[in-house]
Design brief:
Helices cover about 45% and strands about 15% of the residues. The strands form two sheets. The chain has an eight-stranded parallel sheet. Strands 2-3 form a two-stranded antiparallel ribbon. It has one domain: Aldolase class I (TIM Barrel), CATH 3.20.20.70. It has helices at about 20-35, 55-65, 80-90, 110-125, 135-140, 145-150, 165-175, 190-195, 210-220, 225-240, 250-255, 275-285; strands at about 5-10, 15, 20, 40, 75, 100, 130-135, 155-160, 180-185, 200-205.
C-alpha cells in the first residue's frame, strides 16, 4: 500500500435517526468513480463519536466492498489507549489498510504522553498508523519535534496535519524520516503544503467536489503549479463554505443539495442553517457540480 494524493474524509448519511447505508454506498461509488486516491471512513467528518459499533463495522465493510483497489484508512482514535485498541480489534476483520489515530483529546497530554500513546497504539497492530494532529478539536498541539519523534515509531507511516501552522508543518516535512508521509488536514492548505514537499490532503471538500480536488492534487504531483493555483483559486469558496459551521454540517448540506443524502446530523451536531445552504448552493453552482 502506498498512501499518497487526495483522500476523502467520508461523511456518514443519516435518515430518521439511522445510518442510511444506501446513501453511503452512493457516496463511496461517487468517490471511486471520481478517481479518489484513498478513502478515510470513520473520522471526525463521519460523526464517529456518535456511531454504534455495529454501524462502524457495516460502514467499513461497505467501503472495502466498493473500494477494493485503493487504500482505506479507518478512524479508530479515542482519548484512551485501551478504547483505541478495542476499536482496532473491532474493525480489523473488515480490511482497512491503515488506522487514523487522533492526538488524545480532552486529557491534554504532554508531548511525552503523546509519544507514549502512539507507541502503545502502534505496538498493538501490524497495520500502519496515520497520526492526526488537530488542536482545534483536541485542545493539544503535537509539536513538530514530537511529530518527527513519533514518525520514528515502527508502524507509524504518516501524519494528517491540521494545526494550520505552516511553519510547524514545514519543519515536519523537512525533518521527517524517509518514507514518512505528510498530509494536509485543511483543504485550504493543500497547495502550500504540497509545494514544500507534502504528500497530499485528507479532504472534507472532496465530499462535494471529488473530481476537482483530485485534479488539484494531480496537478501538484505533476509539478504543474500554474494549473494547480488556478484550480485552488476556483475551489477556495468551497473550502470556506465547508467550515461556516462545524464540520461536517456544511458538507452534509452540500451533499443534500446534490441529492446524495439527507442533511440530517446526530446530536450534538444539528442541521445546517439557511445561510449555510445558501453558501453551498452558490459554490456548487459556480463549480458546475
Amino acid at each position: 500500500m502506498e498512501l499518497k494524493g487526495c483522500g476523502t474524509a467520508l461523511a456518514t448519511p443519516f435518515r430518521d435517526g439511522k445510518v442510511d447505508f444506501d446513501a453511503y454506498r452512493r457516496l463511496v461509488r461517487r468517490q471511486v468513480e471520481a478517481g479518489i486516491h484513498f478513502l478515510v471512513p470513520l473520522g471526525s467528518t463521519a460523526e464517529t463519536p456518535c456511531l454504534e459499533d455495529d454501524e462502524k463495522c457495516e460502514l467499513l465493510r461497505i467501503t472495502r466492498e466498493l473500494c477494493p483497489d485503493r487504500p482505506i484508512v479507518a478512524g479508530v482514535g479515542t482519548n484512551s489507549p485501551a478504547a483505541t485498541i478495542r476499536n482496532i480489534r473491532l474493525l480489523e476483520p473488515y480490511g482497512p489498510d491503515a488506522w487514523l489515530v487522533v492526538v488524545p483529546y480532552y486529557n491534554k497530554p504532554t508531548q511525552q504522553g503523546i509519544y507514549e500513546y502512539f507507541s502503545a497504539i502502534a505496538a498493538s497492530t501490524s497495520k500502519g498508523i496515520v497520526v492526526y494532529n488537530v488542536p482545534g478539536r483536541t485542545g493539544t498541539n503535537m509539536t513538530a519535534e514530537t511529530t518527527i519523534r513519533v514518525a520514528g515509531i515502527p508502524g507509524v507511516i504518516a501524519v494528517k496535519e491540521a494545526s494550520g501552522n505552516l511553519e510547524q508543518i514545514r519543519k515536519v516535512v523537512e525533518g521527517r524520516p524517509e518514507g514518512f508521509k505528510v498530509f494536509s488536514g485543511n483543504d485550504d492548505q493543500t497547495l502550500p503544503i504540497m509545494e514544500f514537499g507534502g504528500d497530499g490532503i485528507i479532504s472534507v471538500a472532496s465530499n462535494i467536489a471529488p473530481k476537482q480536488m483530485v485534479g488539484l492534487v494531480e496537478a501538484l504531483q505533476a509539478g504543474d503549479v500554474e494549473e494547480a493555483r488556478k484550480r485552488d483559486a476556483e475551489l477556495a469558496p468551497l473550502y470556506d463554505a465547508c467550515f461556516v459551521e462545524s464540520n461536517p454540517i456544511p458538507a452534509k448540506a452540500g451533499l443534500s443539495i446534490l441529492g446524495l443524502c439527507a442533511p440530517e446530523m446526530r446530536l450534538p451536531l444539528t442541521k445546517a442553517i439557511s445561510s449555510t445552504f445558501d453558501a453551498m448552493n452558490r459554490v456548487i453552482a459556480d463549480l458546475g457540480i
